[in-house]
Each structure stands twice: as structure tokens, then as C-alpha cells.
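Collaborator request, handled under Task 6.
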Amino acid sequence: MSPRPADPHGKRTQRKPRPPEQRQGRDQPASAFATILEALLARVGGARGAVLVDSDGETVDYAGALEPFELRLAAAHWRIALDEALARERVASLGSVRLIALRTSRCSYVVRALPDGYALVIVLTRSASLLGETRALEVCVRALCQEAAWPEPWGAPRGLAWFPVEIAPDARRRPGAVRVSGILRPLEILGAVVGPGTGEKAWRVRFETGAEAMLVRESGGHWYADEPPDPGEVRSGGDARAPREKARALSPLTAAGRGRAVAAMGGGAAAAPITAKKKPR
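C-alpha cells returned to the collaborator:
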């Protein structure tokens, strides 16, 4: 992956998500889930790929610079690992397993459980922070839940929600305006918030609508608010078809593609076509 370009003042600019259909090597057309995963990759340092996988280990859709087969293989492998963790949880009567984060000799991985047996698998560089961008992960999970019409927030702390926002900072790098529907809107700084996190800065602000929120600038330069600047942009619901059914309507996977992943995992011949799951309630 090429490094992010620098501006004339020597500062690194934020990487904008590239439309999934423009990435080379895709073996299926991109669905709405790929766009959501691309947005996650743009906000997580060191992220190389992300996959939405179903309960059978079959990839629904993906995004990233890695080869599609490599992403499918990783998703199938860590889907099995998540199932094993859930099985041990039931035997030992432990708390609910929602997330697995681990570092190997070559890569790092984050696996997030989702409703109806689905999971989100993120492949990162070995040196990447495993849990450094929890807001970006939460935003991605919420978007996936909305697109799949799952109940939300699923598995997130009750009452906690972050929204990605685009902020135009002032000369002192404080929030000066927020972009809403493509237009910069003024905001009022009410005060600074102490200690949001390592390398982070936070302010209490009031939006043009009168709503108050906490704005956080992460160490990577991304901004989040705990309230949306425009409540009308927060949508609910979505297409009630299961994610596998929705992605299949765009691009059914070939039996040969499934067979390669199954064989690589030691499963032998190609798997039979997977029927569409029941729609999320």
C-alpha cells in the first residue's frame, strides 16, 4: 500500500476511502457492506482488510488491499476460532464473548461477533494497535446492523454511541466548524475535556441545532462526536434481507471459489451452495 500523501506543510493527510469497485483483483461486485468496510479501513491505522463472514465461514463481502482469497481464508479461519471461543464460553459459563484480538508472527487480527452468527474479521499489520480505534469499530458495527436491519447497538456498552464527523479546525487546531450535508456549519466551544485517551483531544461543543456533544480528535486525526450534528442523518432500519442473501443478489459466489477456501482449510471438495438465512428480526 502506498504511503499517505503529505501536504506542503509536512503534515500527513487523511486517507479517503476508495470506492471498492475501483480496487483491483475483486472477484465479486461490491455491495453496500463493502462500502461500510472500506470506511472502517480508512479510519483504522494499519488495517489491511476487513471481511463480513457468515456462520458457515463463507465471506459475504470484503474490502482491503489483500488478495480476495487471502481475506476469505482468514475470515473462515477466525470464524472457526470464534465458534470455539463461544463453545468454551457455554461450557465454562463465562461472560458473553463479543470480541477477539490477537497478534501473530505476521499479522494482527480483530474478530467481532455480530447477530445471527455473522462476524466481522479485520486483518492488520503486526505492529498495529489492536484496540486503538474502538470508535471506528463501533461505527462500522452500527452501520452493518443498520444495513442488515439487525437490532442495534449490538454488543456495545449501553448508552454509548460515536458518530464520525468532518471538522474544520481553527488556527489553534480546535474545532471551528462541522460539515453537515456538504456544508460547513459553525459550532460553539463550551470547554475542553481532560483525558479522553492517549494522544487524543476533546471538547464540549454546541452545534448550530442547539444540541451539545463531546468532540474527540483521535491521535490519527479522525474526529468523532457522541451526538450527531444533524439528527436527520441518523437512519434506522434497512433492508430486512439477511446479509448473505443481499450480497448474493449482487454477486453469487461460484462453487469453484467456495471450493478453494474449503480445500485450503482442509475441508476437501467444494461445499454445497448455502441457502439464504432467515431475515434478522
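The cover message to the collaborator said: "Residues 50 and 122 are 4 Å apart (CA to CA). The chain has two domains: 20-158+237-264, 163-225. Please let us know whether this matches your experimental observations."
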